[in-house]
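# nightly structure sweep
# worker-07 picked up a monomer target from the shared queue
# config: single-sequence mode, recycle default, output format = structure tokens
# input follows
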Amino acid sequence: ELSLGAATGVFTSVAICPAEVLKVQQQTAPAGASSLSAVAASLYARHGAFGFLRGLWPLVCRDVPFNALFYGSYESCITLLLRAQELRSRSELGTLSILTAGGLAGTCGWSCILPMDVAKTRLQAGAAEGSMARVLSEIVAREGVRALFSGWTAAVARAFPANAGLFLGVEY
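# output follows
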């Protein structure tokens, strides 16, 4: 599950990068210039078509480990729950077990990759330049390690129910 999850991270990164760039640009645009069409036109004027792939590598650096941890931890949680409940098949697991495993998987994934997400967001917003490693080290040097986990509470508060529901849908 780890390697399969990691591989999916590459594909999802490429697929979502343009929308992710536009979202970050919209969130950081000055008032009055934040419509989707205005942001897209400005991005294209400044960087051409490749502007929509700005931060692709940081997105890959976020999504590959996230997906590996996400799917791997979900399967690990399911295995532990099967053993703890002395069940033979995941189809015997109850709804609460599936919700718990999915929620914990999302929480684990986001808790581990949040520093990469912070750096990716700053790169896509144009608030930082350079490699992922450089941005991460600059954040630590200027703001301290805690800055790498900005937004953790919100990410986990969203991740637990969203991923609990996702896996409940997958399993049923």
